[in-house]
Design goal:
Elements (H helix, E strand, L loop, with lengths): L1 E2 L22 E3 L6 E3 L12 E3 L4 E4 L5 H7 L5 E3 L21 E3 L6 E3 L12 E3 L5 E4 L12 E3 L4 E4 L13 E3 L4 E5 L12 E3 L4 E4 L13 E3 L4 E5 L12 E3 L4 E7 H7 L5 E3 L4 E5 L13 E3 L20 E3 L23 E3 L22 E3 L6 E2 L10 E3 L4 E4 L13 E3 L4 E4 L13 E3 L4 E5 L12 E3 L4 E4 L13 E3 L4 E2 L15 E3 L6 E3 L14 E3 L4 E5 L2 H6 L15 E7 L6 E7 L2 E5 L2 E5 L8 E3 L4 E4 L13 E3 L4 E4 L13 E3 L4 E4 L13 E3 L4 E5 L19 E3 L16 E2 L5 E2 L4 H7 L5 H21 L1
Parallel strand pairs: 1-2, 2-4, 3-5, 4-6, 6-7, 7-9, 8-10, 9-11, 10-12, 11-13, 12-14, 13-15, 14-16, 15-17, 16-18, 17-19, 18-20, 19-21, 20-22, 21-23, 23-24, 24-25, 25-26, 26-28, 27-29, 28-30, 29-31, 30-32, 31-33, 32-34, 33-35, 34-36, 35-37, 36-38, 38-40, 39-41, 40-46, 41-47, 46-48, 47-49, ...
Antiparallel strand pairs: 42-43, 44-45, 55-56
Helix pairs in contact: 4-5
C-alpha cells in the first residue's frame, strides 16, 4: 500500500522504477503535482486493486493508453484518473471487471460511445465521467440488485430518456446528469429513491410536469431541475423539503403563485434559491424583522415582482442577487446597497423600470460588488461610483448624464465596461489606458467628443471596442495595432478624419471592423502581407470618402469569408467565469457583441453576431473601376453592398459562385452589360438591387429572380423581362446617340470629345472646342 496523495512533487514525472513495487495493491498519487505521461512500467503492477492518479498537473495516459492499462491491471477495483488526458474511447473490456467498485474518469477528454454494460457491473458503487464533452451514450435498464450509489454524467453528450427502471436503484445517493442531452419526461419512479441526497437534472431537454412523487425524496439537500422545458404548477412538495440547501427550477415553463415568505420560512437550511425565467408570480409581504435562513444565492429574474422584497434587508450573507426582468417601478432604496456591503458580489437589476437612487446619487466604493448590471432601466443623474473590486460594470440603456467620473480610474480589476446608450458627454478620460485587464469597452451612443486618446487602447487583453455613434474626431489611434486579441472594432458614426487603417491587417483575431459614416478618405492601399485580416468576417466602410479601386488584393486574403458554415453555431462575445463568495458556486457571464448594418435594403440591429454572419458594405463612397473577380472567391459571403459608388463594367459572372449570398446591392453605379444568368443559382438570395445602372438584356428568370420587385431593376432602360413587364422579343434597347458617319457614342460624352478624334474633322472639332470654351466662360461670368 502506497499513498503519496496531497504532496508537492514539483511537476516531476512518476519514476519508471515504480515497476519494482510489483506486489503493490494500492497506489494513491492524487493531487501530488506529478506531471507528464504515466509510464508504461505501471502496467507491471499486476496486483493493483486501487489506482488513483487524479488531479495532477497535465498528466497523460496515451502511450500506454487506457485500453492497455485495463488489459494488464485485471484486478482493479478502484480506478480514478480524474483530469488525466486520455483522449480515447472507453474500452469495452471494462464491462468485464466484475470486481470494479469505483470508476472515475472526470475530465479526461474521452470520446466515442460509453459502453452501456458498464452501468450494470454487479459491484459498481460510483461511476463518474463528468466533463467529457465528446463522450456520448445512453442509460440502460437497471436491476433491483444494482449497488450504484453515485451516477455522475454531467457535461457529456449522453442522450435519450431516463428509464423507468432507474427507480430500482434504491442505494442511489447522488444522480447528477446536468448539461447533457436527455429528453422526455422525468419518470415518477424516481420517487422510489428514498436515499437520494443530490438530484441534478438541469440543462437538458426534459418536458412535462415535475412528478408530484418527488415529495417522497425527503432526504434531498440538492435539487436542480433548471434550464429544461418543464411545465405545470410549482410543486407544493417543495415546501416540505426541510433538508434542502439548493433549489433550482429556473428557466422552465412553470406557472402559478409561489409564497416566497412561506418557502423561506419552512426551508430553514436553504442557501440557494433560483426561480428565474418561469411564469411564476411571487408573493412576499414579510415584515422586515422576520427571520429566515441566510441565502447565498437568490435569483428571481422574470418573476413578476413589482417592488424590492423587504426580507432582503436581513440577507447579509448574499453573494449573488438577480432581480432582473421584473416590473419594479421605483428608485433603488437606500438600504439596498448597505445591508450586505461585504459579501454581495454579483448584482443584476437590469430590465426593470428603476427611476433612480433613493436620496440621491450613491457611492458603491466600499462594497464588495464584482459585477453590477443596471442595464435597460430609467436611471438618471450622474453615474454611480462603482466598487474598487468591480470587474463588470454595465449601465447601458439608461438616462445617465454628465462626464465619466475620474474615480473610475481606480478600478484596476475592470474587465467589462459598458456605458452605451446614455446621454454622457465630455472627453474620454486618459486613464482608460491603465486598465490592463479590460477586455470589453462599449461607449456607443453617447455624446463624447474630442479625439480618441492615442494611448487609450494599449491594453493587450482588449477583445471588443465600440465607440460608435458619438462625436469623436481626428485620427484612429495607431496603438490599436498592439491589441492582438481584438475581435470587434466599431468606430462608426463619428467625425473621424483619417485614411483606411491598413495597419490593422496584422491583427490575428479581428473579425468585425466597422468604420461607417465618418470622414475617412483616400484610396485603400494594397496589403503589405499575405495574411491581411485573416479572421475578418464583417467589414463596413460605407458613407465615407474613399476613392480609387476596390481592394481586390485584400479580398484574396480574407480567408474567413471563403468558408461556408465550417463550425457549429456560436455567437461573438466575451465569456467570463467568476467564483462567488464562499466557493459555493461558479457564476458565468456572457457579454454578446452587437452592431447595426444596412442589409437587404434596411437598417438592421444585430443583437447577436453569429459566426455564420459575413458581410461587406462599401456603399456611399467614390470607388471606381470594375468589380474585381477576386471577390467571387469569398464563398461564405452572405451580404454584399457596393451601392452608390462609381463602379463600371459588368457584374462578374463568377458571382454565381457565392452560393451563400442572401443580399446583393450594386445599385446607383455605372455598371453595364447583362445580369449574369449564373446568378439564378443563388438560391439563398432574398434581396437583389441593380437599379440605376446601364445594364441591358434579359433579366434572369425563375427561382429567386421571380421574387424580386420591379424597383430592383429601375433606372436600367436597356433591361427587359417579366419582372418589369417588358417583353424581350418585342423590345429594342434604346439607341445610343450617333455622331457623323453614323458613329454611336454615349450621350454623356457629348460632341466635344468625339469630333476632336476625327482626322478629317479636326478643324471643325477645334472650332467647336473654342465655342464650347467660350460658352463656359460666359456661363461663369453670369454666375
Amino acid at each position: 500500500m502506497a499513498s503519496l496523495a496531497d504532496n508537492d512533487f514539483n511537476r516531476s514525472k512518476i519514476p519508471s522504477e515504480i515497476s519494482n513495487l510489483f506486489r503493490l495493491s494500492y497506489l494513491d498519487l492524487m493531487c501530488s503535482n506529478f506531471f507528464g505521461q504515466i509510464p508504461w512500467e505501471i502496467l507491471e503492477l499486476s496486483k493493483l486493486e486501487t489506482l488513483d492518479t487524479s488531479l495532477n498537473h497535465k498528466m497523460e495516459l496515451q502511450k500506454p493508453g487506457l485500453r492497455s492499462l485495463v488489459e494488464k491491471l485485471t484486478h482493479l477495483k478502484v480506478l480514478i484518473l480524474d483530469e488525466v488526458n486520455i483522449s480515447s474511447p472507453v474500452p469495452r473490456i471494462l464491462a468485464n471487471f466484475s470486481s470494479l467498485t469505483v470508476l472515475s474518469l472526470m475530465g479526461c477528454e474521452l470520446h466515442g460511445e460509453f459502453p452501456a454494460k458498464i452501468f450494470r457491473l454487479p459491484n459498481l458503487h460510483i461511476i463518474d465521467v463528468e466533463g467529457n464533452e465528446n463522450l456520448s451514450g445512453y442509460l440502460p435498464e437497471f436491476e433491483k440488485s444494482s449497488p450504484l450509489q453515485a451516477l455522475i454524467l454531467e457535461g457529456t453528450r449522453f442522450f435519450g430518456e431516463i428509464p423507468h427502471s432507474m427507480g430500482n436503484l434504491r442505494s442511489l445517493v447522488g444522480l447528477c446528469i446536468r448539461k447533457c442531452a436527455f429528453s422526455g419526461s422525468i419518470p415518477s419512479s424516481l420517487g422510489n429513491l428514498s436515499s437520494l441526497d443530490r438530484l441534478a437534472l438541469g440543462s437538458n431537454r426534459f418536458t412535462g410536469p415535475i412528478p408530484f412523487e418527488i415529495r417522497n425524496l425527503a432526504q434531498l439537500s440538492f435539487l436542480d431541475l433548471g434550464s429544461n422545458q418543464l411545465q405545470g404548477p410549482f410543486p407544493s412538495a417543495f415546501y416540505d423539503f426541510k433538508n434542502l440547501q439548493w433549489l433550482d427550477v429556473g428557466s422552465n415553463n412553470l406557472s402559478g403563485k409561489v409564497d416566497l415568505d412561506m418557502l423561506l420560512h419552512k426551508l430553514k437550511s436553504l442557501q440557494v434559491l433560483i426561480l428565474s425565467s418561469n411564469n411564476l408570480s411571487l408573493l412576499t409581504k414579510t415584515n422586515v424583522h422576520t427571520k429566515f435562513s441566510k441565502l447565498y444565492i437568490l435569483r428571481l429574474g422574470s418573476c413578476n415582482l413589482i417592488e424590492f422584497p423587504d426580507f432582503l434587508q436581513n440577507q447579509d450573507q448574499l453573494s449573488d442577487l438577480d432581480l432582473s426582468s421584473n416590473k419594479i417601478v421605483a428608485p433603488i432604496p437606500r438600504w439596498f446597497f448597505s445591508f450586505n456591503t461585504i459579501n454581495l458580489g454579483f448584482v443584476n437589476l437590469s430590465n426593470n423600470l428603476l427611476t433612480g437612487f433613493d436620496q440621491g446619487p450613491i457611492s458603491l466604493s466600499r462594497t464588495g460588488i464584482v459585477s453590477l448590471d443596471l442595464r435597460s432601466n430609467k436611471l438618471q443623474g450622474s453615474l454611480p461610483i462603482p466598487s474598487l473590486h468591480t470587474m463588470v460594470y454595465l449601465v447601458s440603456y439608461n438616462n445617465f448624464t454628465g462626464e465619466i467620473p475620474l474615480s473610475i480610474c481606480n478600478l484596476n480589476s475592470l474587465q467589462v465596461l459598458d456605458l452605451s446608450h446614455n446621454n454622457l458627454s465630455g472627453k474620454l478620460p486618459q486613464c482608460l489606458a491603465t486598465f490592463s485587464h479590460l477586455s470589453t469597452l462599449n461607449l456607443q451612443s453617447n455624446k463624447f467628443h474630442g479625439s480618441i486618446p492615442q494611448n487609450l487602447l494599449n491594453g493587450t487583453n482588449l477583445r471588443m471596442i465600440d465607440l460608435s455613434q458619438n462625436q469623436l474626431q481626428r485620427r484612429i489611434p495607431r496603438s490599436l495595432v498592439n491589441c492582438t486579441k481584438l475581435e470587434f472594432l466599431n468606430l462608426g458614426n463619428n467625425q473621424i478624419r483619417d485614411t483606411f487603417p491598413s495597419w490593422l491587417e496584422t491583427l490575428p483575431k479581428l473579425k468585425v471592423l466597422i468604420l461607417q459614416s465618418n470622414r475617412l478618405r483616400g484610396a485603400i492601399k494594397e496589403p503589405e502581407t499575405n495574411y491581411s485580416f485573416p479572421k475578418l468576417r464583417i467589414i463596413d466602410l460605407s458613407h465615407n470618402k474613399f476613392i480609387g479601386y476596390l481592394p481586390s488584393k485584400f479580398f484574396q486574403f480574407w480567408n474567413a469569408m471563403k468558408v461556408v458554415n465550417a463550425s457549429p453555431l456560436a455567437y461573438l462575445g466575451t465569456e467570463m467565469l467568476f467564483k462567488s463568495s464562499g466557493n459555493i458556486v461558479h457564476v458565468s457571464m456572457n457579454y454578446g457583441y452587437s452592431f447595426q448594418m444596412r442589409v437587404k435594403g434596411i437598417e438592421l440591429d444585430y443583437g447577436k453576431i453569429s459566426n455564420f454572419l459575413t458581410a461587406i458594405s462599401f456603399s456611399g463612397n467614390k470607388f471606381e473601376g470594375e468589380i474585381p473577380t477576386s471577390i467571387t472567391n469569398l464563398r461564405g459571403l452572405r451580404f454584399l453592398n457596393l451601392s452608390n459608388n462609381n463602379l463600371k463594367g459588368p457584374i462578374p459572372a463568377a458571382m454565381g459562385n457565392l452560393t451563400a449570398l442572401e443580399s446583393l446591392d450594386v445599385s446607383n453605379n455605372k455598371l453595364s452589360g447583362q445580369i449574369p444568368q449564373q446568378l439564378e443559382d443563388l438560391t439563398f438570395l432574398a434581396f437583389f438591387n441593380v437599379s440605376n445602372n446601364h445594364l441591358t438584356g434579359r433579366i434572369p428568370q425563375g427561382k429567386q429572380f421571380d421574387t424580386f420587385e420591379n424597383i430592383s431593376f429601375d433606372g436600367n432602360p436597356g433591361l427587359c423581362g417579366k419582372q418589369i413587364a417588358r417583353k424581350c422579343e418585342d423590345f429594342q434597347p434604346p439607341k445610343k446617340e450617333e455622331g457623323p458617319a453614323g458613329l454611336k457614342f454615349p450621350s454623356e460624352f457629348g460632341w466635344k470629345i468625339i469630333l476632336i478624334g476625327f482626322a478629317s474633322g479636326l478643324v471643325t472639332g477645334v472650332a467647336l472646342e473654342h465655342a464650347y470654351s467660350a460658352r463656359k466662360k460666359a456661363h461663369k461670368k453670369r454666375m
